[in-house]
Amino acid sequence: MVFISKLLITYGMARLLYSEKEVFDSFDQIKDGSNIAISGFNMATTPEYLIIKLYEHYKKTGHPKDLFVIADSLPGVPGRAIDYVSEKLYREDDSDFMKGILIPYMGFAPWLQRLCVEDRLETYSFSIGTVVGWFREVAAGRPGIMTKTGLGTYLDPREDKGAMNDKARKASRCYSQLVTVNGEEFLLYRAPKPDVSLVRGTTADEIGNITMENESIFGTVLNMTQSAKAYPNPGISFAQVKRVARFGSLNAKNVEIPGPILDYAVVSPESFEWQTAAKEYDPRISGAVIPPESQEGGVKGEVTYRNVIERRLALEIVKLINKMGRPIVMSLGVGIPSAMPGILHQEGLSELTYSTIESGLWGGIPLADENFGASIGPFAAIPMPDQFIIYEGGINDMAALGFMEIDTDGDVNPSILADRMPGPGGFPAICAGAPRIFFSGGFTAGKSNIKVRNGKLVISEDGEITKFVSGVYKVLFSGTQAMKNNKEVLYVTERAVFKLVYNGIELVEYAPGVDIDRDITGRMDFRPKISNDLKEMDRRIFSKRIMGLKREIKI
């Protein structure tokens, strides 16, 4: 065994790098103009050490420059990893290090967004599901990924093709093409093949086999490595790790990246190995410890307007459980939807609902904001490409997602404005596949004073920003496409519930205490259809008491 180990270490396997000088020397091989694949869902699987050292190599030597970065989600959070580098580039007015990016989400990278909004960086943004699937396709030598995701949205070639600014629209380095197969429309997404991959794991053995036992997710690290090494132009692959183990000591089934397809395993300082933005290491997040049944979440103290929305979503979940006659699989987006596990636990429905998030985690309590993507106590974790196969295939029973704008056609824009371009995240791919979509959010935005008193909604001060507009700034969900595909779509707010119907949206419920003309239709830029069966929202939603939803389950 010792002889075999030495033989493998000597000939052609991944090289272990321990020192900063070794890392710098290895970066000499990266050519100017390279396409760099970087893993990361916020800080989960983000190779922060490699990102920063690559930038420092550029600052010291002037190379590599003119890089094009392709990420599976967002490799960073405010002030860290790619956002740290972006701030340097912004403040120094440096346009040489990075020429462009294809990144699905920039919401937690404010400096990167500035470079995009000010047209200083060629910027494209496809859905997470599209990009992670694209890595698999390009690794197999295929021209791109063909999918229905993005039809009728800004990703459609009849709109922006996924370009986020003028520099990207002019360059068209990444784009979608309209393809028709047996009379059905699809989009074929194209982007340049990676020359280099930077990913992160936990442990490397002596020949570079990589395991991920401390990580919160699997992400897309294997497929990104494969895409860099694929012919006809095989490139260079790096993996950042925390530690090194003896060859033969790792369980083969725990190896995520086989050493023979890796060029370098870089041992980083522990300060660059954070699981999330707020947690360096929590065994409940990595799956090393299964926590007791959570008591977190739910309504505590006074019922807030956010609780109203969450509880109204819970009513739909009960209806769906009864309709399906079994437990259901849910996709939960960031924001209000991510709080649903707490509400469902409080109502005793946890065993009848399997929540998922786009990073590939099932169950547990999803973390919020820049920690989103990790969960406390998930019962399963799968790679992101596999998670999005489930989403795009409609295997999940429903999706609960947020919104920023809704228009007269039922189109939804969750995030993009002229001065705010975080990108779509997983939103378009989840919408494309889910048979039922429940959009949820506050009816207006901005400073407000909206409370629940005596079982009624009291709007003392309404938000000054209208969210129901005549036309959304960018379409990320197409109401027309949804109706064509017979999807069930609701728009749930604290004061009103709307249903997607042909040629628009229809008001089907209103909150007790609100005036329909003043508080609902009067705060919209268009007049919705009004249901002939218009109802008041269930008053249990506005009570401090548990709603007793478990008693309504009929399976």
Layout of SSEs?
Elements: H1 2-10, E1 15-17, H2 20-27, E2 35-38, E3 41-42, H3 48-61, E4 67-71, E5 74-75, H4 82-91, E6 98-102, H5 110-117, E7 122-124, H6 128-139, E8 145-147, H7 166-171, E9 175-181, E10 184-190, E11 196-200, E12 203-205, E13 210-211, H8 221-229, E14 236-241, E15 243-245, E16 255-257, E17 264-267, H9 283-286, H10 305-324, E18 328-332, H11 340-346, E19 353-357, E20 361-362, E21 365-366, E22 375-376, E23 380-381, H12 384-392, E24 398-402, E25 405-407, E26 412-413, H13 427-433, E27 436-440, E28 444-445, E29 449-453, E30 456-461, E31 465-466, E32 468-469, H14 479-484, E33 488-492, E34 496-501, E35 504-510, H15 516-520, E36 529-536
Q: Could you write a compact summary of the structure shown?
A:
By secondary structure, the protein is α/β, with parallel strands linked by helices. It contains 15 helices and 36 strands. The protein folds into 2 domains: 19-195 and 211-248 and 258-270, Glutaconate Coenzyme A-transferase, CATH 3.40.1080; 305-552, 3-Layer(aba) Sandwich (Glutaconate Coenzyme A-transferase), CATH 3.40.1080.
